Amino acid sequence: MKIIVLMVVLFLKTLGVSAQIKGVVKDSLSGQPISYVNIWVENENIATTTEEDGTFSLNVSGNKNLIFSALGYEKKTSKAAQSAEVFLNAKAFDLEEVVISNSIETKRIVIGQTENTIAQAFDNGPRIDVKYFPYNPAYNKTRYLKKVTLSTDSRIEDATIRIRFYSVDANGFPGEEMLKKDLIVTVKNGTKSNKIDLSDYNLVMPKNGLFVGFEKLMIEKNKKERTVTDQNTQTTQILKTYYPFILYNYVERDALFTFSGGKWNKQTNESNGMPEKVKGYEPAINLILSN
Q1: Which fold would CATH assign to domain 17-88?
Q2: pTM of the prediction?
Q3: Among 31, 74, 207, 243, fewest CB within 10 Å belongs to which?
C-alpha cells in the first residue's frame, strides 16, 4: 500500500497540479506596481492582465513558464510557482529627434475598409488579433494617423481595451510597438462605433505599412459572470466573460497574425506548394489619415 501511495504522489508531481497563482508585478527601480501587464502561459492560450494595483491571479500549474510583458519594460519569463513578486526592468529608449511640421488637416482619407462590411462580434479569448495596413505612395499627402475607428459590443458600462500599433519586421510579422505608452480606451454599453483621436501621438504611416490590433484586458472591472446549469446533471458552473467584444470582418488575406502563448503566430494557406489566400476573421478596424 505504501508503494502505491508513493507512486500516486510521484505521478501527481510529474503532471503538475493546477492551482491559483497570485502575485504582483512591480517596477524594478521604484518598486511601484505596474498596471495592465500582459501575463501569458508559455505556448498556451491562457493569459491574464494585472489590475491597476499590479496584482494578478491565474489558474496554472506551478511548473509552467509565465511570460510578463508591458509597454516600456523588458519582457521577462518566470516559473509560475516563483511569481509571487515579479520585477520588470524599464527599457532604455534612445532620445529621438523631434520634428515640428505643419499638420493642417485639410485632407482626410479612410483606409482599411473591406468589401464585406458585415461584421460580427465574438469573444477572441486571451490573445491579440491585428489587422495589416499596407503602405500606398498616395499616403504621402495624408501621412499622419489622425484617428483609429473600431466597433465594439459590450454588456457592461465603461469596459476598457488596449489599442496597439506595430511596425513591420524584416519577416513581415508585427515588430516593434510604435507607441511609447499604453493607449487604453473606454467604451460604453451596447454596440458602438468608436473613433479614437491619435493626434497627440504624432504617428506617421511607415513606408512598409503597419499592424493595428487590440488586446482584451482580463481585469475585474471588465468581467461579467453568469451561472449556467446543466439540465442533464443539474450541476452548475460560473462562466466568466471579459468585455468588450470587438467586431470582426470575414476576409481573404495573404496571411493572418495572432499573438498567443507569448509569441506571434502566422496563419497561411498553400495548395500544391503555391501560396493562396487564407480566409478568416480580422478585426473591423479602420484608420483615418490626414495631412
Answers
A1: Immunoglobulin-like (2.60.40)
A2: 0.86
A3: 31
